Amino acid sequence: MKIATFNVNSIRSRVDLIITWLSEKNPIDILCMQELKCVEEQFPKEKFEQLGYKCAVNGEKRYNGVAICSKLEFDRVKINFDDEVLDQHKRLIEVEVAGVVILNVYAPHGASDENDPKHLYKMAFYDALKIYVKTLQEKYKKIIVLGDMNVALKNIDVYDSKLFEGKVGFLNSEKEKMKSLQNIGLKDCYRQKYPQTKSFTWWDYRTAGIWRDEGMRIDYILATDALMQKCQDISVDLWTRHRRVPTPSDHAPLVGEVAI
């Protein structure tokens, strides 16, 4: 199974690029997208369906939004999590496919000021997410938690660690929340496979950082041991990010290959 996480930064702006990528460059089995910026009725399902995908969407007007498009049948889909923090915005969608639970996450961006409500919400979101994943682990062995986590965990995950000191996405408080989530039994598939490799998934539009590889690794595929052991490879696919037309997202997809 080839599974990808991709912050598309507006699905309606990016759909033609994504369809070309899927049909001509990288035929993904399960594509998990974040930051749709549209409600479900505006999501271009028919274009994905023409390629053989079924789509599950948890959308929000103008902001946030997540979706999973799969060539495998969904055994179930969940978009409501009965939690005030997790359900405050459309940031989560969960599916079960071929005995694997996939939780697609778009974590809050936060703020560099740790007293800012946006930062406090990000901290609360991570706490609630950790509690929820622990409940999943009581029922399931094969779990993948993936998405735009908006945290670069280590110095190797940014192009210049000194430059990022005190910046949102690289605060110690954010790193601690990310570590805490992983410590309940989720392995960072990319770092497990490539412990010393510097590779990024996001580059700033404003500085044209992609052309100098000045980025951050903030998108993850995390998996329980039962699946981590079956992860055959994982890589960042730069094809979509290197396009000039159609305009790319500021992220690139992270693609994992898992035997199921």
- Count of DSSP strands: 14
Radius of gyration, taken over Cα atoms and rounded to an integer in Å: 17 Å
What is the CATH homology-level superfamily? Answer: Endonuclease/exonuclease/phosphatase
Helix-strand topology string:
EHEHEEEEEHEHHEHEEEHEE
Placed side by side, the strands forming the largest sheet appear as: 3-4-2-1-14-13
General form:
globular
Q: What is the helix content?
A: 25-40%
Question: Can you put this structure into words, describing what you see?
Answer:
The chain is of the alpha+beta class and 260 residues long. The chain has one domain: Endonuclease/exonuclease/phosphatase (Deoxyribonuclease I, Chain A). The protein is 25% helix and 25% strand. It has helices at residues 11-25, 45-49, 117-137, 161-164, 172-182, 189-193, 225-228; strands at residues 2-7, 30-34, 54-58, 66-70, 76-78, 92-97, 100-106, 143-148, 187-188, 202-203, 215-216, 219-223, 231-236, 254-258. The chain has a six-stranded mixed β-sheet. A six-stranded mixed β-sheet has the order 5-6-7-8-12-9. Helix 3 packs parallel to helix 5 (172-182). It is globular and about 45 Å long. The model has no long low-confidence stretch (mean pLDDT 97).
